[in-house]
Records
---
Amino acid sequence: VIRTFEGVQTGTGHGVHVGEVPIGTTPTDSGYQLKDGTRGGTYTTDMHGGTVDGGSLFTRSTDSWGDGLPSNRESAAVDAHFGVAATWDFYKNTFGRAGIRGDGAGASSRVHFGSGYRNAFWDDYCFCMSFGDGDSNTHPVTSVDVAGHEMTHGVTAATAGLMYAGESGGLNEATSDILGIMVEFYADLPADTPDYLIGEKIDIRGDGSPLRSMDKPSKDGRSADYWRRGVGGIDVHYSSGVANHFFYLLSEGSGAKTVNGVAYDSPTYDHSTLSGIGRDKAAAIWYRALTAYMTSTTDYAAARTATLHAAEDLYGAGSGEYTAVAAAWSAVNVGAAQPAAPALTQPGDQVTALGTAVDLLVPAVGGSGAPTYTADSLPAGLSIDAATGRITGTPGTAGSTTVTVTATFPSGATASTTFTWAVTDGTGPCPSAQLIGNAGFESGAAQPWTATPGTVDTDRGQASHGGSWKAWLDGYGSGHTD
Ligand SMILES: [Zn+2]
């Protein structure tokens, strides 16, 4: 090897909002370009207050950019360049998505767009982001949540294509807020502690308040906390409140809560008490719904269905996540409170060899709020997690017991299920046990079987032999295959 050349550099940036961060740059004969060779070739240009053409690429002799102050033209460029990179990394490492369109192409950024321009926007035509400098050209609209928000408009355009008007417009805006704050959480910057607030760094109102708050969207004086007839008729940046609120409740639950030092207090339309499933799962459900089920005309009712489908795909129809999605939509007045009355999944009779570790989940389905689980007559050595219904431990004594698991909901409603649990030591008669998985389909799904959609149901026109669920095979009075 006579000579090697590293074409990818990591420079140091000092942004207005992002603080000191590493940024991707490209070396040239005379210095460096603000162009990132690792993320689809994304680059950042200076519009010098103009609004047409692409601007001029930032270059400099050393690989240290900006000084953290808006007066240095590179500082806002560092924000934008970092925000685009963080958004790229978030989509790639979280969902395996290669860029906005999923085709590996990087978007470009234009900073110092216009004069006193208090906004930022995504443009599908130039496949680029534009950032204004805000009031007096000293408050650049370049925070990482704004970058994530704007670029997510490009993802939405490339996937569901939610029309930017009516309820689909509100869902389009909410998608950008939801995944925008997820980019902020992903970046996790010391200079921009992640939160469920949109635009808290850019001070667009001049009074220090954020642009939008997801825990209670009406804090901004305009946004809708709950669905109502006609909500699609208000500005899409306010009708988005319904879905933003849904996302917060699904992630963190209702009531007062402090996350990363920020205090939230999230109300519910139906006065239900919700516990969250965490923002990572909530975002995975939203992204799956966006990319697999939502279309240009999806409204709030259809968004509920889309996210329930997504939760079923990711976590199962009887899962706590599925139930939580239904409850969170109901808490923002979209759809019925619960898909079903509370019930416990029947796990089937259990046979365990003495000294073998056990891990059995007996989850509740339906019901409102998070239940507390208890179990009677578990084999010695086993215990149930009160919060999750997971039974773990190692049985230490042979024998057979009849176990009853009970879930108690906040309302006082209970559901229970009973099964036998035989612990064998290799001697004596073989214990009787149900060895067929999900024998009565009482989990509400076919697994571990596979079935034609609609075969497993609770239709009472032809009631099940026992319990609520059954698999209805043919019997339509005409030729039919299940
Ligand atoms: Zn937007």
---
Amino acid sequence: MRITKRLTIVALCSIAPSIAIGYAQQYDILLRGGRVIDPANGIDARRDVAVSDGRIVSIQADIPAAQARKVVDVSGLYVVPGLVDLHAHVFGYEGSLVPDETALPAGTTTIVDAGGSGWRTFDEFHRTVMAHSRTRVLALINIVGKGMVGEPYESDVADMDPARTAETILHNRDAIVGIKTAHFAKPGWDAIDRAVEAGRRASVPVMVDDKIFTNAGRTTKEELLEHLRPGDIHTHMYNDRQIELIDRFTGKVQPWMIEARRRGVLFDVGHGGGSFLWPVATRAVAQGFVPDTISTDLHQGSRDIQQSNMPNVMSKMMLLGMNFADVLVRSTVNPAKEIGRYPELGTLGVGRVADIAVLEEQSGVFAFKDSWPAKRLGTKRLECVLTIRNGKIVYERGAVPARGGDTAIYDLLLKHARIGDRGDEVDIAISGNRIVRIGRGLKAAHARVVAEAEGYTVMPATAAEGVAADLTVLDTGRAIMTIRNGKIVTDDEGLTISDATRAGPYSNFK
Ligand SMILES: [Zn+2]
């Protein structure tokens, strides 16, 4: 009897501490030590961020690690609101992408499909994509009832019905945030005016993508000053196929673009495969004509060639001289405001939904491609490290799926190089400051940075596995890239083109 009693007491004692710990672990996730930047609340400081039940529940200078079930050390990284991509393609359009594969590894927690569906196809979009995505997917529905399905449908004025479009929006306020008109190939203003009419009926903005494929006799000046309303959005602002943002003779931003901005028309990047040109963007930003919103226009083509996800486009704007805070506000707060979802989205306020991106600002030599595609080299690059959507970790860098049994992660991979006068092309993998592997078919997706060295010679000829990674890439005797201690220190030709921790989909390489 006595013994039993003692055992009971011992058992109680051993339970007690674990109850105490369980009680203390009040948070699901704790991001510790990061630089929290939340433009909406004027925060730019080292803070810890606690998340529970899908919400941000505490932001403090120091939250003890013991209070959370999962603690992530994010020191040295930016902790920012989940990015809001105002212009991307995840339905209808032939180059559409899967939102969770595209958005989440980029820190994009909200993606707005720009015109893939119309009032006839919105239900299908909702059923097949929106309802199944971990990414928050919202829609600008096309003024064309059938959506963005190519010609002749996109120029079929008879299928542009403002009343049905507005009705569909009003029945789906939770998911539809505006209207898109694009690719209208006929003369006249029917598509734009009908989109604006639908926007007026439903009190939502219209995004216009005009004259990418055809001029059709319209001028952007007339569009911006006479047809669009304040709050409507002109996307592809740095596209020069319209030959209009920058005056060809003076190099100045057209005065009526500035006038349009003054009257409240909004300007969106919409990078895509055809709408971001270095000469145009450079001149515009130098004159202060920066975007209201930074967006990707991501589809299969722009993903594969320009790799223009949100961190990529943000990095490009930083290369043009904008600072991180300026770029961030245009990738979070501004798009959320434009679609009427602020402050529900775009901030890290306590009590808000826990949509969070953790970004790293990397230093090195990086090549960024525009839509021609011309490369420009930069020394800074943003990369997503961690994404939290609705309080759950939905992406973590480094979790590169194993393929073909080769699971090594390389810091740098030179593809298709010839070493010295050896005849065959090989891939050279570098980790830290050493060459760790020389072989064929090393996976680009397993390297953090990839450089294409096809047709070039790598010296010294003694390069081998295990030796220090001090290499020079030569183009018929001329040094075009140097690597010292495993790091790229010069890259005159922009050989560095792939960032492969975002794995296969973002790589140009097989
Ligand atoms: Zn687009």
---
Amino acid sequence: MTDPHTLPPLSFAPLEGITGWIFRQVHHAMFPGLSRYYTPFFAPTADSPLTGRGLRDMHPDHNRGVPVVPQLLTNRAEDFIASARLLQDLGYKEVNLNLGCPSGTVVAKKKGAGFLSQPQALARFLDQIFQTLDVNISIKTRIGVENLEEWPPLLDLFQRYPICELIIHPRLRRDFYRGQPRREAFTYAVAHSRLPLCYNGDLFSPQDCWDLARQFPSVDRLMAGRGLVCNPALGRQLQGGPPLTKAELQAFHDRLLDGYQSVLSGDWPVLGKMKELWSYWARLFPAPEKPLKAMRKAKTLTDYTFAAQSLFRDQDLLPGAHFPSAGASS
Ligand SMILES: Cc1cc2nc3c(=O)[nH]c(=O)nc-3n(C[C@H](O)[C@H](O)[C@H](O)COP(=O)(O)O)c2cc1C
């Protein structure tokens, strides 16, 4: 096992619908020590370089004291540039480009992972944004759309730019989140790239992170998403700290519930947020089915809170439980 103290701090992957500003604030307050939190993507357009949900999520007042990197999803350089300039004016030193989103509607527009299928257009886009902007630009990418042969030329393309961090989720778009990450593609990047590399994909437990660090000793940046939602203390454990306790999870839950109630109107959207979180947390308990069913059926926050409290009251955390490995994952 690699010495926990030699492991770099984790960064929190962007998770649309989950890791918005309330979540990031509460997580950072209770489980400090992560290197960065990447925002879920905002998709700028010519008319709205930064508006609505994106502006709320990235507003400095909502991110004070939290190391946040805003993420943009677009294939139009002008829109990226306009949005990145606004973010720079708001005080951000780095902006991240999403080249990984596998969703059908995004890919059909040749954005996210879909942009990887257009290497010439991608090169023009990167030429333009790197020539124009003086903000740090990082990229979060998949390794191609359909097959592994796309990866070496894509990596060659990335090498031509001063990307401050290349975050690699080594799956193809067609993999979505299925199967094991294709570690051989990350091995290839480590051997062939001079860019600062960050590994992302299926780091669910401390052991997963230690194994990854042992396999790639030169890589000092790791990013986790689903594993950190399920076990918000994962980063602390990697630094040699104690595992999550039930009292902490309950306090995390309560603070998120309060936070969502303070910004969302009506019970329904708050219930949506909390129910999604339970799709991760349920696996931390030995027999969550009955209270979970009651939470899912709850139409009011009163009913929801009653069910959640009964789960916390009646059951202890399973020691060492974490988000499932690929194949078994939901
Ligand atoms: C619900 C959900 C929402 C996501 N939203 C984003 C997003 O907004 N931007 C992005 O780059 N990746 C997004 N991702 C991908 C994650 O950031 C990450 O790359 C992926 O989950 C693999 O990492 P993990 O195994 O540590 O979760 C999302 C993934 C999930 C499951």
---
Amino acid sequence: MKKIAVIFGGKSTEYEVSLKSARAVIDAMDHEKYQILQICITQKGEWRLLSGDYVIDGKSERWLQTSTHIQPVISEASKGLYDRDQMEFHVPDLIFPVIHGQQGEDGILQGVLEMLEIPYVGCDVTSSAICFNKKLTHQLAATSGVQATPAVTLTKQEIPEVFIARYGYPVFVKPLRGGSSIGISKAHTEEELREAMEEAFRYDRIITIEKAVDGIEIGCGILEQQGERIIGSVDEIELQAGFFDYHEKYHLEQAEIHQPARVSDAVKRQVAELAERLFVSFGCRDLARVDFFLDKTGEIYLNEINTMPGFTGQSRFPRMFAELGIDYTALIELLLQNYLGSED
Ligand SMILES: Nc1ncnc2c1ncn2[C@@H]1O[C@H](COP(=O)(O)OP(=O)(O)O)[C@@H](O)[C@H]1O
Ligand SMILES: [Mg+2]
């Protein structure tokens, strides 16, 4: 029986989102066929092996109390995961990291997994790190002929005077590296800009300020099956007000996801082509969701590339493939089979 470790949680602002994504991933796996190790990295950064299924129970997390301490071991004699409470050594056949945000989606965890020499699902160190950095993403995309809205990065010592004089308001202010819209605000005035910068600096020492795009958001997922790319159905986020912030992403009160997007086939083809081009030029692997803006004049701008997009059954990425007939269970199995082969 193949042993698969699903690693989730993580020391990032998206800990709770990861619990939800991982719950869905674990539930979709064939428990008869695979031995599944559920590893939660706590908000303090401790690695825990769960003895039973966890439930999403808000802050209490009683299930963590019965967990054991597990740690990556990279020694001359052995590489793997050591459960120091049970004194048991695990060498999974595959690791599926289901962590969004810092230390999970930015190449850091991937680096640990590379050193463990255990195969893992998803983008590698470099592509994860680049995609997690909003400015680097835009710069590298430009070299592939894909445009993004003008942006400037700043540290605490700098002020965006020149940028604002040139592009005006409104602008989006973001931590350079983040997710789930945490720390992001839209600013229409100098006063709002000051507050937005202060907020973004709470999450990163570098922030990025972008000219707001007046239009709609559209996205396209890319999935790899044995090295062949499958292009997901393009979706659209319809916003009634504001922007796609943390609350809206998980409650969808003012926002609605349209699958498929209500745009022309020509736009869908163009978005799919750009998404695939970026996936390839960034060296992405297995999966990524590429998000764009379509402005009122029909111009398409890259927003960002998510190497571990939301992964619940209702999330955008799985829905892009469900639309093509690859349901959630099939999607997970396909990702596992990229590494495990189909002999068992
Ligand atoms: N330049 C922009 N123009 C218009 N809306 C934007 C812009 N940047 C971000 N947004 C809005 O903010 C949301 C979150 O920004 P994004 O860069 O995707 O951050 P995250 O990585 O947290 O998802 C987007 O989904 C969109 O609604
Ligand atoms: Mg986003």
